[in-house]
């Protein structure tokens, strides 16, 4: 135990510092959001003397954040549904179905993970504009699917590779088609992975700014994270109101992390399973 003590401290101290560095910006934003403009100008680092809840309502109503919030919910829900459907089917096919070129296709999906969005941004915008999908819900949904599908396919493939092939063979002998095996066996078995990957995909889509800004240029179709930028322009001198808007936009993500942190951790480590 005496030998393990210093080692534990060497691990614990950096982790505590990292946790504080992560939590501090959130606490600072929440404190600023509760201040008056005068308090912030006099001392931005002091604690708020009184809680200014009006800042939250001002941020919510001034730039139509309710509409932006609804836009984000619609786009994220549809994109995640498509990602899970296509990703689970592709993961099952790459992991359990034997066909020529499956290994090469799996490598292509893995390689797509390393392509930054900035590389495909201009071609994607031209394709979407040619199809009349700019400034539409389907356009942004398809852009999210195209961007995050390789990640979803990779994790679902890793998960399904851990399923014994004998189970699939037995189901085929019983007369199930490939679709029957997927629907009756693989889809229920993959529910934990689907939940974890779905949470991660939802967080990715919710926090996105660049893709949404590219695909939804008009004010009426902005997502919540992009709508925060208009709040910054309108209240450039009123930092507490802007901080209140940032706090509102970040609350869904914070709540998701607090209540589903185990599933998120499982999703992050799903790709490390040994098939």
TrEMBL record:
Residues 69-260 form the ABC transmembrane type-1 domain. SUPFAM superfamilies: MetI-like (SSF161098). Gene3D superfamilies: MetI-like. Keywords: Cell membrane, Membrane, Transmembrane, Transmembrane helix, Transport. This is Carbohydrate ABC transporter permease. It is a multi-pass membrane protein. The lineage of its organism: Bacteria, Bacillati, Actinomycetota, Actinomycetes, Kitasatosporales. It holds the Pfam family BPD_transp_1. CDD domains: TM_PBP2 (cd06261). Belongs to the binding-protein-dependent transport system permease family. It comes from Streptomyces xiangluensis. The chain crosses the membrane at residues 7-27, 68-92, 104-125, 137-156, 193-219, 239-260. It is found in: Cell membrane.
């Amino acid at each position: 135990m005496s030998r393990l003590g210093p080692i534990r401290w060497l691990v614990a101290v950096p982790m505590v510092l990292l946790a504080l560095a992560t939590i501090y910006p959130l606490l600072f934003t929440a404190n600023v959001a509760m201040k008056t403009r005068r308090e912030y100008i006099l001392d931005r680092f002091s604690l708020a003397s009184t809680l200014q809840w009006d800042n939250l309502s001002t941020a919510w109503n001034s730039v139509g954040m309710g509409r932006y919030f609804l836009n984000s919910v619609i786009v994220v829900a549809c994109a995640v549904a498509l990602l899970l459907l296509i990703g689970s089917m592709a993961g099952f096919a790459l992991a359990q179905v034997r066909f020529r070129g499956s290994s090469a296709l799996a490598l292509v999906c893995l390689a797509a993970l390393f392509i930054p969005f900035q590389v495909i941004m201009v071609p994607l915008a031209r394709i979407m504009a040619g199809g009349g999908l700019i400034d539409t819900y389907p356009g942004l949904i398809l852009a999210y699917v195209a961007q995050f599908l390789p990640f979803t396919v990779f994790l679902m493939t890793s998960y399904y590779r851990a399923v014994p092939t004998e189970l699939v063979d037995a189901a085929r002998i019983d007369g199930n088609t490939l679709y029957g095996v997927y629907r009756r066996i693989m889809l229920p078995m993959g529910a934990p992975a689907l939940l974890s990957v779905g949470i991660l995909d939802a967080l990715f889509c919710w926090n996105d700014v660049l893709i949404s800004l590219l695909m939804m240029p008009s004010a009426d179709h902005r997502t919540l994270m992009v709508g925060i930028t208009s709040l910054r322009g309108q209240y450039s001198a009123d930092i507490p109101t802007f901080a209140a808007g940032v706090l509102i936009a970040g609350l869904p993500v914070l709540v998701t992390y607090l209540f589903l942190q185990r599933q998120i951790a499982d999703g992050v480590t799903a790709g490390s399973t040994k098939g």
